[in-house]
Amino acid sequence: xxxxxxxxxxxxxxxxxxxxxxxxxxxxxxxxxxxxxxxxxxxxxxxxxxxxxxxxxxxxxxxxxxxxxxxxxxxxxxxxxxxxxxxxxxxxxxxxxxxxxxxxxxxxxxxxxxxxxxxxxxxxxxxxxxxxxxxxxxxxxxxxxxxxxxxxxxxxxxxxxxxxxxxxxxxxxxxxxxxxxxxxxxxxxxxxxxxxxx
Length: 198
Ligand SMILES: [Fe+2]
Ligand SMILES: [Fe+2]
Hints:
With 198 residues, the protein is mainly alpha-helical. It has one domain (3-197): Four Helix Bundle (Hemerythrin (Met), subunit A), CATH 1.20.120. The chain has helices spanning 3-6, 16-45, 52-84, 95-117, 124-159, 186-197, and strands at 13-15, 164-166. It has a two-stranded antiparallel sheet with strand order 1-2. The chain is elongated and about 55 Å long. The structure holds fe (ii) ion (2 copies). One fe (ii) ion binds at residues 71, 74, 95, 99, 141, 145.
């Protein structure tokens, strides 16, 4: 569960250290989503029927939560790094365009499965290409953040251990891993449970 932002206090600020912990937890949850997408991708490549409902649930989660809440939280972290220590800011200008590209790739894949659900034709080639693009690009982006940007953020947290940032404009709680799980994600939650037990 995202313990930090979901347990936010009344004055709507959060320790930078807790924000960073929250972002790492988001990444673990997003990696689970990518594992599930890859499992379905394998099924398609083996000419088996994938679980389109599951792919749609994953992409709904990724577009309504990850794009809309995770990335704005990262913006707060990266802005703090830039403001506090410009030596930590190298390459941060690449984050925004990558987030935009990922949002477009996510919307494209979500549109594919919505088109399939409505009876429209989406070729297997296109679906495989769009799923592969999304999984590879997001995994690459998260790896960069974890291996480089979050490590630099650790350095800032080490020197500014009592630094708080305002999260008053962030009002989206995690609908799958947060305290109030949306009923519409029941199928996704079951798949996450099954994956963890497999
Ligand atoms: Fe990011
Ligand atoms: Fe991220």
